[in-house]
Amino acid sequence: MNIQWYPGHMTKAKRAMREELKLIDLLIELVDARAPLASRNPDIDQLGQGKARLILLNKSDLAEEKWNEAWTAWFQEKGFFVVKVNSRDNTGLKQVNRAVQDACREKIERNRRRGILNRPVRGMVVGIPNVGKSTFINSFAGKACAKTGNKPGVTKGNQWIRMNKSLELLDTPGILWPKFEDQKVGLLLAMLGSINDEILNREDLALEIAALLQERYPGTLKERYGIEEGTERAECLRHIGQIRACLLKGGEIDLFKASGVLIDDFRSGRLGRITLEIPV
């Protein structure tokens, strides 16, 4: 699969982010805990030079805990503040406020020495499409402040949101980078749902997921669908279509629909906790 996706609005969004950076104390970067490096836009490090940095390992409930811990240590060694979160059920969100204050301690102390008291920290929430930025903001605020969706590209523009008296957040659109030099990155992002599904070949993506599960998580397909180990990938899709009644007229198996079943189960965590990248 050759995957590239960089719609025009992302260039505009990146330009708007750069203009807002002068107002920002902290970059809060959400990554998908299942693929923390693939789900990082390499442009963010350049944009965030000189700013305090906080990494949120979002969707940590969908990744293996031992690798969540390993990635936390890996990012901390690089100088980032790190918190594991699951924005959908508020796990880890109480730790975010503390991490924000720790990350911005020097700035807060400097303001205090200048007599600037009670100025809220201003954080910019950044990340690739569909990594959960708006869901995080809504959960963190305890109310619906940002528009959310289960597909990439829902947030189109920047939006300031006051969390509390000590923190204001700027929600930004998810942005990718113009070209994936390593197609493995594009494939992982497609698996996670950060690429517009409409540009993807769904059957090819499902076959890649089946192959990954057979190699990295043997037994997963058998437990969920009754598929024996060693089954050929295309036959895996046919099996899923058969047991889930993904049928066309005449009883022929609808491989497009069967592929959707596997992709949805994979992305939602119904196949178990899966980590796609491990730190090296």
Describe the structure.
The protein is α/β, with parallel strands linked by helices and 280 residues long. It folds into two domains: 9-171, Rossmann fold (3-Layer(aba) Sandwich); 201-268, Conserved Hypothetical Protein Ylqf, Chain: A, domain 2, CATH 1.10.1580. It has helices at 9-20, 43-47, 65-77, 93-103, 105-113, 133-141, 183-192, 202-216, 220-225, 233-243, 255-268, and strands spanning 26-32, 52-58, 81-84, 121-126, 159-164, 167-171. A six-stranded mixed beta sheet has the order 3-2-1-4-6-5, with helices on both faces. Strand 1, helix 2 (43-47) and strand 2 (52-58) form a beta-alpha-beta unit.
Name the helicity range. 40-55%
- How many domains? The number is 2
The proportion of strand residues reads 5-15%
- Tally of separate helices: 11
* Major sheet attributes: 6 strands, mixed
Low-confidence stretches at least 5 residues in length (pLDDT < 50)? 151-155
For this entry, give a set of tags.
280 residues, 2 domains, Rossmann fold, elongated, 41% helix, 6 strands, 6-stranded mixed β-sheet, alpha/beta, Conserved Hypothetical Protein Ylqf, Chain: A, domain 2
Give a short summary of the structure.
The chain is an alpha/beta fold. It is 41% helix and 12% strand. The protein folds into two domains: 9-171, P-loop containing nucleotide triphosphate hydrolases (Rossmann fold), CATH 3.40.50.300; 201-268, Conserved Hypothetical Protein Ylqf, Chain: A, domain 2 (Orthogonal Bundle), CATH 1.10.1580.
Task: Please give the structural blueprint.
Layout: H1 9-20, E1 26-32, H2 43-47, E2 52-58, H3 65-77, E3 81-84, H4 93-103, H5 105-113, E4 121-126, H6 133-141, E5 159-164, E6 167-171, H7 183-192, H8 202-216, H9 220-225, H10 233-243, H11 255-268
Parallel strand pairs: 1-2, 1-4, 2-3, 4-6
Antiparallel strand pairs: 5-6
